[in-house]
Amino acid sequence: MATQIADRPGLHTTPTPYEALARHFAQNPASYPDHPHPDDVSRSDIYAENRWQPIFADMRARGPLHYVPESPVGPYWNVVQHKAIQHVEALPEIFSSSWEHGGITMLDRPENSEFELPMFIAMDRPKHTDQRRTVAPAFTPAEMVRMEADIRKRTREVLEALPEGETFDWVDTVSIELTTQMLAILFGFPWEDRRLLTFWSDWAGDTELALVPELDHFRQDILREMAGYFQQLWVQRSQEEPGPDLISMMIHSPAMNQMSPQEFMGNLVLLIVGGNDTTRNTMSSIIHSFDRFPDQRKLFEQDPSLIPNAVQECIRFQTPLAHMRRTATQDTELFGKQIKAGDKLVLWYLSANRDESVFENPDQLDITRENARRHLAFGYGIHRCVGARLAELQLRVLLEEMHAMRMRVHVAGDVERVRANFVHGFRKLEVEVTRF
């Protein structure tokens, strides 16, 4: 199977979606409006250039909801305060996640689209509950205990192989490698092809590609290729005894074993992006944040008992998925605003995790923060991230192993951020390792 996809011509020279979008917008500056609405935060450049903070702070100061009547992704409401996001998430019947109403991203569902990707995070009850229940056993506390030793071993091996006295890219060498290894284990995925999971995750997770038809068609081709690969794994596992991997769980679940090819692909995208981008970008952010706040790095080095809380604070500070979208199913009033059926509400976790009414000095990293666990980076309510425990475990083990090895990592070169409004993270982080 490895030769059918991993070695096909052009795979390793294909640009990332972020490179492709940056090239497109550089060549076609008119793709963005000359005078965007001041509250339009759909533009990916504000995240690539790391200048989103004052825009959201201004909106939070003016209230919990703000309407954007016109944007490249159509009209929408920004929900920017912590309390307001929890309120919307707690009413899934009124504020739907279903792909049939528009799904979980800012882009509207194209009319007469033949390329739908239903996934359980983009479903409402009861179907959402049944499918989520199928994969949940992979992320129980008992499973975390079972996997910890292997995660620690693999983390230590990656860290021990890092060069000292020379600059290297932490994103590729550590963050991508560790998360891709974990995904390969969860799926029972061929080890030699594991970097395909990163490739697919990047193209699946960049929702802004739909604004550029030629890139969106290319993205669809890549995802169909992904589906073909996984379909071979599905056939193989269906002829075997039930196993602990996610594909086997789906095959032997009444809630998921009759999925359409589109639904199978949608749930793969969900599990790959959810398992890859979130943990990977927080792993990179930890290094960048400790370098930016050396007093917090010193606290970490002096007191390893702070590591569990540091994990929560670093997740809050980064917020690796910036938003989720909901669609109103009926006319309703929300915090004094009139919401109409069909209105799009974008829940900005990125903003909620900097809400001054909840987090004191929210733009500061503080690994002793008492309420760091109140972050909304994993969502809230019935759609809270099913893999949150695994992400927390991977991050905790990374920090514990770095501390055990007395590893201090300095930013020593280029820092490039992801150009996207959905995935919030780093493309490149050049660093150098020393010891404390």
How would you sum up this structure, described in words?
The chain has 436 residues and is an alpha+beta fold. The chain has one domain: Orthogonal Bundle (Cytochrome p450), CATH 1.10.630. It is 46% helix and 11% strand. The strands form 3 sheets. It has a 5-stranded mixed beta sheet with strand order 1-2-8-5-3, with helices on both faces. Helix 7 packs antiparallel against helix 8 (170-187), helix 9 crosses helix 12 and helix 12 (261-292) packs across helix 13 (294-302). The longest helix is centred in the middle third of the chain and has 32 residues, at 261-292. It is globular and about 55 Å long.
Strand order of the largest sheet: 1-2-8-5-3
Subunit organisation of the chains: single chain
Gyration radius from CA atoms, angstroms: 21 Å
Please give the CATH class.
Mainly Alpha
Question: What is the third-level CATH name, the topology?
Answer: Cytochrome p450
Based on the structure given, which CATH architecture is correct? Orthogonal Bundle
N-to-C SSE series? HHHHEEHEHHEHHHHHHHEEEEHHEE
Mean pLDDT: 88
Number of domains: 1
**Helix vs. strand class:** alpha+beta
Shape: globular
Number of alpha- plus pi-helical segments: 16
